Amino acid sequence: MQRRDGGPDVKRPRRTAARALLAAALIGGPLAGPAPLRAQDAAPSATALTQLIGNALFWNQRGQPDRARQELERALALQPQNPDLLALAARLAYQLGEYDAGDACTARLREAAPQDPRLAALAAEQRHSPAELQVLAEARKLADAGRKEDAIRLYRQFTRGKIPDSLAVEFYLLLGGSSTEGFIEASDALSAVMARWPTELAFRLAYARLQTFQEGARAGGIELLRELTREPAVAEQARAAWHETLLWQGADFQTRDQLEAYLRAYPGDPAIEAKLKEVRASLPDESVLARMRGWEALSSGRTEDAEREFQAALAATADDAEAMVALALIRRKQKRFPEATKLLDRAYELAPYRRDEFRATVGDGDQPGQPPAEDAGKAVRARYAEVRRLADQGALDKAETLLRQLMRRDRTAGNFVALGGIQARAGRLAEAEESYRTALTLGPRGADALAGLSDVLDRQGKASESEALRAEAEEKLTRAGDRAGLRQLDRSRADRLRRQATGTGDPVARIALLRQGLGLDPDHPWLRLDLARALQKQGQGAEARRIMAEGVAGTAVSPDALKAAIAFAYETDDLSLANRLIDRLPPRERSEAMRTLQQQAVAREQVQAALTSGDEPSRIRAALLVLAAQPDPAGVRGNEIGRALLRLGDKGAARSALQAALASTVAPTPQQRIAYAGVLLKAGLTRDARALVRELDRRGLPEPSRRLLAQVLDGIAVQQSDRLNEQGRPAEAFEALAPRLSGDPADPGLNLALGRIYQDNGRPREAQAITETLLQRHPDNLDVRLTAVTTAIRRGELAEAERLLAETRDMFPEEPRVYVASATLAKARGQNGKAMNDLEKARMLRERQLVKPE
Predict the structure, then answer these.
(1) Domains of the chain and any CATH numbers
(2) Residue-level pLDDT at 283
(3) Is residue 484 classed exposed, middle or buried when 0-12, 13-18 and 19+ CB atoms within 10 A define those classes?
(4) What whole-number distance in Å separates Cα of residue 759 and Cα of residue 778?
(5) What is the pTM of this model?
(6) Which family is this sequence assigned to (predicted)?
(7) Rounded distance between C-alpha atoms, residue 455 and residue 252, angstroms
(8) Mapping DSSP to helix (H, G, I), strand (E, B) and coil, where does residue 532 land?
(9) Which helix (H) or strand (E) holds 474?
(10) Residue 569: which region, alpha, beta or left (left: phi > 0; alpha: psi -120 to 50)?
């Protein structure tokens, strides 16, 4: 017999508190801290036993198996023949690779309970050498890093293809989240494990969590989690998993019911209440629901039910044109033509731009040789729904092709509005403008056509006509009480202001435009991020952080808002905050880059602990080198250590650290090579950096790694070119740049290096032209700006240099190189005192940078 969630239907014996705690042995959730054993608990009482087991589980989960073993030994001293204790002790020993101890506990279990079903599973535990256990450790690290396929491969290698029950929870949850095939295999395997260990709640909890990974099984998983909240040993972990699953569920009626069920069990949960409010707000109102039920009844041939639902829709919303058309269709079937005509006329009056669409739905009646009108209407509706689906998925060409097929018969204003929207999203603004203008000629000037045309005109720089159309659209939407339309119009205005801000080189004006946009659309996460970035550049970091914090306040926060806040936290070097924000994201929204970021936060904490230990510099370097020798498949730890050593001014130690990290890895990953090459490049070790990435094939890399590799290769070319140029070999310097420039002719770093070749070899005019072009294209690039300042000083254009420098200082108030450039300008003017002050300011800012991670 099977339960609805697919798990075996087993009768569970009544549990003692000790048995309940034992069942949590494989659960990763939190346990309370260990409690000291009191004198009155020295007798073999249930209380003392429960306390000892709880302490053992606590220490085991915190990576202190020796202390866990001590607690278990004390528990076994109280009840040496307890089968549950012996089974737990055996499993713990096998997990730690202590096979003799595991065998001894298994033998004692066999004596105490010869028929215990766990004996077979324990006997199947494989013996592993220290080298093999290192493979398991590496598999777990890969799993933590989100590299599921690599981790699964190493798990299978470690277990020789047969997963023991001691690894069932961690492996099958990993496998189940990797693919549909993995989910099926993991579900079947965990069901078998549950059958072998019918009293172990840990496996049932893992199975329930696994079911929530797949859409079709999620409802059953949630139901099983709800059942497990009644089991004291796993109640908190089950509730937490139930809670998390509900928060990243989609907005539908089933989710609404599940949220309400949770609140009945745990009333007053603010996150769930906010989610429920969000779901309810996104669900259709009663008029729409009635209409949906009506169409479903009509397609099933239940005409009377359909008629009743469409009438209910009109009772809820008297001006529901779609319900009128549906009811007209029924009246035609009933041969009540005058009523049908009256309903259609009213629908046309309410939505004249949809006349052709409504006529296609109703048809000309059921004439011989024609399909029933409702069937034809249903087919048309399905094709329009497909257009929307394709557009939402970004398949704009396919969406447009299908829409144009529909428009051969139905050249309605609404269809031209939809066509204009698709063309605008594809960046074909002139075509979109034509489509919106056509829509306006086919019927009354609808607000959607006006707003769409306004946006397209604005993007083409036709501001005055755009504003007039937007005002007309706003008036129509206000008169109609269309709040959703007004919100969309505000977002369109906010996007317009954001585009204007992007195009201005004035940081004060940019901030003003972004503030205005955020006032119109406070829920626009990327506009909020732009504003925070602009404020941060102006030295207004506190306000920037406040603005980003407001965007993720509360519990019902969109994934995009969290992603924007994560990006800002990372850019401002607040990895701890970035990590916490990533934890709030639904698992399916977490990218590989975010998982790398979490590793970086851990690595940075380790490095900072060494740097701030108070030890002698030699000991700090030694500690960092020991840390570097640990496996580092993503290259994160070595990157942090190498950069830390560079900040200490020790290039040799940085190189040694990376060599140690590479030596600890059997086959360094491309990500590891690229990361280490970046550090070597920063140290000026061009040859070493080139050797690390020479053999990499960029075609097999994910997009983020391809971008990083391109940056490293560009940096290698620039350093090689600069070195050759300094040696008086300009032709070879140009040849070093040429391959990279041909691949990316607009790259600022490569072009600046080319400008240096021209400047140092008697061609200052070409160098100036490059700098001016770069300044126009990249006004926010610090290197470009400083080069422009230096070029102006060399030409003797000190006023121009001062103007550029003032702009640059406003944009980068905490950058020491700006003050070095200011000192150079002051020296050119003979202002030696000011030059000394600027250099002192640069020194202070640089020291401040050195005490912070990069």
Answers:
(1) 45-124 (1.25.40.10), 286-364 (1.25.40.10)
(2) 61
(3) exposed
(4) 20
(5) 0.42
(6) Belongs to the YPP1 family.
(7) 32
(8) helix
(9) helix 463-480
(10) alpha
